Amino acid sequence: MKILAVETSCDETSAAVIDDAGSVLDVETISQISIHKKYGGVVPEVASRNHTLVILPTIQKVLEKFSKNSDLKIALNNIDALAVTVGPGLIGSLLVGVNTVKTLGYLSGKKIYPINHLEGHIYANYIRKSDVEFPALVLIVSGGHTSLVKMLGHGKYETLGQTLDDAAGEAFDKVARLLGLSYPGGPEIEKLAKKGNPNTYNLPIAMEKSKDLNFSFSGLKTAVLYLVKKTKNIEKKDLCRNFQDVLIQSLLLKTAKAASIHKPKSLLLSGGVINNQALRKRFKEYFSKNFKNTRLYLPDRSLCTDNAAMIGVAAHYKSLKSPGKNWYDVDVNPNAKIDE
Ligand code: KG4
Ligand code: ZN
């Protein structure tokens, strides 16, 4: 089944076409980072307005490339079904993608696969590989979420733990802002951390001694704030290095704890923070040494942040089991949970 997928849950407008085998034929993503940079974060109203401006040209572009025809109606005839992110995310942003896809569904009569954004992030791991064995353990670390999820099969999830306050990406963004770095903070902190000394500062490892599988990063953010306040000439690159190290360590500790309890055959990392090369390296080293029976999966770096390819691939796996929904049964769900 050929699927046209759309993602607009935050500040990326993205469309992709997936073929019958679940391979990504094309993906087009327009990022609004340069627009939101001057505000230091995503402004929801501005995000939805900009989605409205570029959603149709983005869809047009992938369809045109795929069907080699600039007539949207003819191009759409070559597609079998539609997919769209329905949540979680910013309601105004989600509405743009969902209403656009519902309209295409209404006009063409094609079925729609409503996709959970976090499920999309998980399926970024399936873009190049399809040999994941279950049960799998999934660590989702994005700007809005930090969760450990047990995946028992396609579409079968059980949340094991999540952040009690800030998400890991949010902590990167907030600490970056505190240090006067630009948005999004993750890549900026990573850049500085590469040159930083790991031993200058001594930030705490969040939830190091807690017994559950939850996370918490607001204490770490506050620790950075106090350190900056009391230190005269703070060395930003050393602080970035220390912050990044302890944040990664806290993600690693909880993931390792979950892996010891649940003994997964696969470990899937997903979400924008997985872009971080230090994190990728640390997880690879640690799991190849300590969990030899668990295979680690990492999406390509370019597919860790929001994109429609991962949404289309998630829809592909749903299409093997279900026919999709009619346009009038599809709605946004800004607070959608992965295991409901
Ligand atoms: O998954 P994503 O694109 O959007 C959400 O669904 O939230 O993730 C965006 C988050 C931002 O907080 C950003 O700072 C973080 O991912 N991020 C990174 C890196 N690249 C993006 N965090 C750490 N290191 C990176 N290289
Ligand atoms: Zn995301």
Overview of the molecule:
- This protein has 340 residues and is α/β, with parallel strands linked by helices.
- Helices cover 43% and strands 18% of the residues.
- It contains eleven helices and ten strands.
- It has helices spanning 33-36, 44-67, 72-77, 91-108, 117-123, 168-178, 185-193, 218-230, 236-262, 277-290, 308-319, and strands at 3-7, 12-18, 24-31, 81-87, 112-116, 136-141, 146-153, 156-162, 266-270, 295-297.
- It has a five-stranded mixed beta sheet, with helices on both faces.
- Strand 1 and strand 2 (12-18) form a beta hairpin.
- Helix 5 crosses helix 11 (308-319), helix 6 crosses helix 7 and helix 7 (185-193) packs across helix 9.
- The two termini are 26 Å apart.
- 49% of the residues are buried.
- Bound molecules: 5'-O-[(R)-(carboxyoxy)(hydroxy)phosphoryl]adenosine and zinc ion.
Question: What are the key terms here?
Answer:
5-stranded mixed beta sheet; 11 helices; about 45% helix; binds zinc ion
Strand and helix map with partners:
Blueprint: E1 3-7, E2 12-18, E3 24-31, H1 33-36, H2 44-67, H3 72-77, E4 81-87, H4 91-108, E5 112-116, H5 117-123, E6 136-141, E7 146-153, E8 156-162, H6 168-178, H7 185-193, H8 218-230, H9 236-262, E9 266-270, H10 277-290, E10 295-297, H11 308-319
Parallel strand pairs: 1-4, 4-5, 6-9, 9-10
Antiparallel strand pairs: 1-2, 2-3, 6-7, 7-8
Helix pairs in contact: 2-4, 5-11, 6-7, 6-8, 7-9, 9-10
This protein binds 5'-O-[(R)-(carboxyoxy)(hydroxy)phosphoryl]adenosine and zinc ion.
Zinc ion binds next to helix 5.
